[in-house]
Amino acid sequence: MKNVMSSLKSGDWRALVACFLYFDTGFTVWVPYGPLAPFISKSISMTPAQQGLLVAVPVLSAAILRVTLGNLYQSAHGKRIALLGVLLSAVPTIVLPVLPFVPSYTLLVLGVFLGVGGGASFAVALPMAGSNYPPKVQGLVLGLAAAGNIGAVLDGFLFPQLATHYGWQVATGGALPLLAIAAITLYFWANDSGVKTGSVLRAFGSFVVTLVGLIVLVLLVEAGIFGAGKTGVLLLPVIGALLAIAVLPKRYRAVLAERDTWVIMLVYSITFGGFVGMSSYVSLLLTNLYQLSKIDAGLFMALLAATGALVRPLGGLIADKVSGVRALTVLLATISLSDFVFAALMPTLAGGIALLVCLYVAFGLGNGATFQLVPHRWAGRTGLMSGIVGAAGGIGGFYLPVVMGIAKESTGSYQMGFATFGALAACAFLAIVALRRPWMAWSMQSAALHAHATE
Q: I need a labelling partner for 275 at 20 to 30 A (CA). Which of 25, 39, 144, 424 fits?
């Protein structure tokens, strides 16, 4: 504990608190559709696949917007971007409570704005927090800032209770006081010491183009333009990602030519994608698979999200000690095995909760361990890489509920869904094992250089 307090005092702790609260609130307004989905489906008729798309759109929006917001952070002051993110993510919480009728396409469009909370907060909060601290404590600091994903816990506790008493539309307005607190804290405490390069106007234009483009794409998929049924839904992340990449400056697109970028993206699509995707879908999973009440499913969702969020700083701390490479080798194996066991056994409620807890612990630790590596491998480009890697995590989070919904609708079971993600985790594990030697070399060399620079 003494070492932790000493590390926190080595930088601007107020800025770290502001980033934490910003990220926490961003998560709260990011995934309310998850715990509210059982309520929404009572008033709007949807198939399991459509339910999966509903909870997945905010996740995808955050994934894509992280790329252009990470690019904007490289040019503009983080505090201004954060306040813009708070404003945009407040749109659904203001609009939904006052609408007399909510068609499905309106929910999907507002879901894009909900993604600004998760997307903006991730791409800005982490590098802004890290910019106020020395390199030797980046794993701990980024882990603490990113522990703001505990905001997903509030979704499980807050929104089902409000929806039960006041209706699901009014329940979404429950996030407004939290957004106000985040905005005030950011205004007075946030600080960004990162080096800025490039044109602010061009970077902001890229963000606007991506936001509008996502809204158009979601409406086109809803209308069946990209293919009827599941085809358009599965293509949506690909088209959205291509849009975000197209508007990036050429010098930033260069990182996509690096092998390590794609491997770290795959890893994060499993760890963070698993966390946010399962948090979005687990209420539906528990109500459909185990017939839990909507309130109980929301509480379980909150407890699972709390587990994953609280261990994330520990993942960064462990990675600081043993390296993110070693930590991820164990954690990816754990995720893969847990998914395969769930698919093979389709356990009872007690066994299912135990496996979900195991998954969430591995997700949280893996998230912290992954971002311990980013500042070492991509020094000076952490804002951009936070956006790109975070986008991969969000895309993983999009596909999880979509694939789960398709599996349930097509086969009547979730086995295919769990088996699919178990296989992907196994592939990431094999990639880390294959690259273990070169990754250990640059991660240890970077740590040694940082230690020498501080002597």
A: 39
